[in-house]
């Protein structure tokens, strides 16, 4: 899980509380540091074609500018207190919307408009008569009360932040456990931290640095996954396998496996269902303990064992074969009727979605003296070929 993406924010929070007077926090290298860092990260994101981060960078920049313009005066001024109350609510809301809804490409007209909106909306709040609006809304007084003797955070903000925190935790743990959402969560945490450490020197600048570092880590993690992880099955792909094979121990084994009659399966059920099968196979292989699974390419997968105990290897491969064979694959989507009337007439006639079963063949080679990665894979491939010849749905060990 890419939790480490939150490290910059957690480190800043820890340092701020542990060593609030540390020289690091007394000054930034130069006043424009946050904007320079924002442009640098935007440059890296553009170089990597990760345009979706532009909207987030615009929002962080807009928030920073709004904080510089509106939150540098005493909190006793009603306009400042109102901005302090409303700005985090707006930014949190925008961040949640940007995480949940699809964002247009940043180099399209809607994308550019969104980048501008995310930058200027927080700044526009500085000029808006917020104190007047809040007064007209008849918000209960206790929401403006401060529960802590230090700092300025109000009960209203605490409620809002807590509700948002639950939403974020739901997003990162259930629907999307992707690095991008952890990065977005990290940026939000950085903004949250700003309101807690508002009275510290250069708080707004340090928050921008923490948010930018979070985005950089997210970018690095996303790029690493792009290079090493197969998008369809979520297994490490061939490049990762090659690295593993380079450092293979003397006692090891490699197994090649592929789906039986997969061409026929694709022709019968369509490529999309074929993809569904590969995804399922990926998740079954990923769950096997004591073995590293890779997508070799197409419908071929590779398993690498860091030992050469034949019985244990055979048992594990047999376990994989049986699990795949026993798994009932529901063909819900393709079984869906062409028109509504047909669908209605079928309903209630029982049966549920059609299920199919697939099988795999496996060939395994134990590493022998003089074997290199290439020869080992070749022998495993030959064993796979003999499993196919022997009737498929079985395990064969190379001689
Ligand atoms: N859906 C889907 N199909 C793929 C993918 N990669 C490769 N294939 C298909 O896998 C099939 C492989 O077919 P073959 O190599 O002839 O093997 P097979 O039909 O499985 O026959 P045997 O291996 O002898 O049992 C081809 O039809 C490819 O199009 C993929 O990512 N998705």
Question: How would you describe what is shown here?
Answer:
- The model is unreliable at 334-340 (pLDDT under 50).
- The longest helix is centred in the middle third of the chain and has 26 residues, at 203-228.
- It contains 16 helices and seven strands.
- The chain is elongated.
- The chain has 399 residues and is of the alpha+beta class.
- Strand 2 and strand 3 form a beta hairpin.
- Strands 2-3-1-6-7 form a five-stranded mixed sheet, with helices on both faces.
- It has two domains: 2-228, no CATH class; 238-397, Reverse transcriptase/Diguanylate cyclase domain (Alpha-Beta Plaits), CATH 3.30.70.
- The chain binds guanosine-5'-triphosphate.
- Residues 258-264, 266, 271, 274-275, 278, 298-299, 388, 392 line the site of guanosine-5'-triphosphate (GTP).
- Residues 258-264, 266, 271, 274-275, 278, 298-299, 388, 392 line the site of guanosine-5'-triphosphate.
What's the domain count? 2
| N to C succession of SSEs | HHHHHHHHHHEHHEEHEHHEEHE
Low-confidence stretches: 334-340
| Estimated structural class | alpha+beta
How many individual helices? 16
Mean pLDDT across every amino acid position: 87
Kindly report the spatial arrangement of strands forming the biggest sheet: 2-3-1-6-7
What is the tally of beta strands?
Answer: 7
Give the C-alpha Rg: 28 Å
Small molecules (ligands, ions, cofactors) in the structure: guanosine-5'-triphosphate
Level of helix content? 55-70%
| General form | elongated
Biggest beta sheet attributes: 5 strands, mixed
Please report the distance between the alpha carbons of the first and last residues.
Answer: 40 Å
Proportion of residues in extended strands: 5-15%
């Amino acid at each position: 899980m890419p939790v480490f993406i939150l490290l910059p924010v957690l480190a800043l929070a820890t340092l701020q509380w542990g060593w609030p007077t540390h020289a690091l926090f007394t000054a930034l290298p130069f006043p424009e540091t946050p904007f320079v860092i924002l442009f640098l990260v935007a440059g890296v994101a553009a170089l990597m074609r990760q345009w979706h981060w532009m909207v987030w960078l615009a929002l962080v920049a807009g928030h920073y500018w709004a904080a510089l313009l509106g939150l540098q005066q005493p909190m006793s001024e009603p306009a400042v207190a109102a901005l302090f109350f409303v700005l985090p609510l707006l930014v949190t809301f925008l961040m949640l919307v940007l995480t949940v809804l699809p964002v247009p490409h940043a180099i399209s007209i809607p994308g550019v408009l969104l980048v501008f909106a995310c930058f200027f909306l927080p700044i526009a709040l500085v000029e808006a008569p917020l104190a007047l609006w809040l007064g007209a809304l008849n918000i209960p007084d206790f929401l403006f009360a401060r529960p802590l003797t230090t700092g300025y955070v109000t009960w209203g903000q605490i409620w809002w932040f807590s509700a948002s925190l639950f939403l974020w935790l739901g997003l990162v743990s259930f629907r999307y456990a992707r690095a991008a959402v952890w990065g977005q969560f990290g940026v939000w945490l950085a903004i949250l931290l700003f309101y807690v450490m508002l009275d510290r020197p250069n708080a707004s600048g340090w928050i921008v640095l923490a948010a930018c570092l979070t985005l950089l880590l997210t970018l690095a993690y996303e790029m690493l996954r792009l290079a090493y992880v197969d998008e369809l099955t979520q297994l490490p792909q061939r490049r990762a396998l090659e690295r593993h094979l380079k450092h293979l121990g003397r006692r090891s084994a490699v197994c090649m496996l592929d789906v039986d009659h997969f061409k026929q399966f694709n022709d019968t059920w369509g490529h999309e269902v074929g993809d569904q099968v590969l995804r399922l196979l990926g998740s079954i292989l990923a769950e096997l303990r004591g073995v590293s699974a890779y997508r070799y390419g197409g419908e071929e997968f590779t398993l690498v064992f860091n030992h050469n105990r034949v019985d244990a290897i055979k048992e594990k491969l047999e376990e994989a074969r049986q699990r795949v064979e026993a798994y009932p694959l529901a063909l819900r989507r393709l079984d869906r009727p062409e028109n509504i009337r047909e669908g209605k007439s079928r309903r209630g006639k029982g049966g549920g979605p059609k299920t199919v079963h697939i099988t795999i063949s496996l060939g395994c080679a134990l590493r022998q003296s003089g074997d290199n990665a290439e020869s080992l894979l070749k022998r495993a491939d030959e064993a796979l070929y003999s499993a196919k010849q022997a009737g498929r749905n079985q395990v064969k060990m190379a001689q």
